[in-house]
Amino acid sequence: MDIDLTYSGLAALGAGLAVIGAGLGIGKIGGSAMESIARQPEASEKIQNAMIIAAALIEGAALFGIVTALLAVFK
């Protein structure tokens, strides 16, 4: 088995896991935010701001994982 093929496969697996993790994280944040807004509508602006910041941090971490995996493939 060629060692480059193994690294490419592992890098693709890592990129896929980063995307799945980001999707699960953002879904959890969105669901919790909607539940919080339903319980306390007067705090919706604060909840939305916190949700957007958390989602952006998760997206940044996922993008970092994908770029790292792509760098491993195309080194």
UniProtKB/TrEMBL annotation:
GO cellular component term, pick one: proton-transporting ATP synthase complex
Domain V-ATPase proteolipid subunit C-like: 11-71
Membrane-related topology note: Multi-pass membrane protein
Keyword Hydrolase in record: no
A GO biological-process term: proton motive force-driven ATP synthesis
Highest taxon listed in the record's lineage: Bacteria
Gene3D superfamilies to which the protein is assigned, alphabetical: F1F0 ATP synthase subunit C
Subcellular location: Membrane
Main location: membrane
UniProt-listed Pfam families: ATP-synt_C (PF00137)
Any one GO molecular function term: lipid binding
InterPro entries, per the entry: ATP_synth_csu_bac/chlpt (IPR005953), ATP_synth_F0_csu (IPR000454), ATP_synth_F0_csu_DDCD_BS (IPR020537), ATP_synth_F0_csu_sf (IPR038662), ATPase_proteolipid_c-like_dom (IPR002379), F/V-ATP_Csub_sf (IPR035921)
Keywords associated with the record: ATP synthesis, Cell membrane, CF(0), Hydrogen ion transport, Ion transport, Lipid-binding, Membrane, Transmembrane, Transmembrane helix, Transport
Membrane spanning stretches: 6-29, 50-74
Similarity remark: Belongs to the ATPase C chain family.
HAMAP family reported in the protein's UniProt record: ATP_synth_c_bact
PANTHER family for this protein: ATP SYNTHASE LIPID-BINDING PROTEIN, MITOCHONDRIAL, ATPASE PROTEIN 9
Function noted in UniProt: F(1)F(0) ATP synthase produces ATP from ADP in the presence of a proton or sodium gradient. F-type ATPases consist of two structural domains, F(1) containing the extramembraneous catalytic core and F(0) containing the membrane proton channel, linked together by a central stalk and a peripheral stalk. During catalysis, ATP synthesis in the catalytic domain of F(1) is coupled via a rotary mechanism of the central stalk subunits to proton translocation.
Protein name: ATP synthase F(0) sector subunit c
Species whose genome carries this gene: Blattabacterium sp.
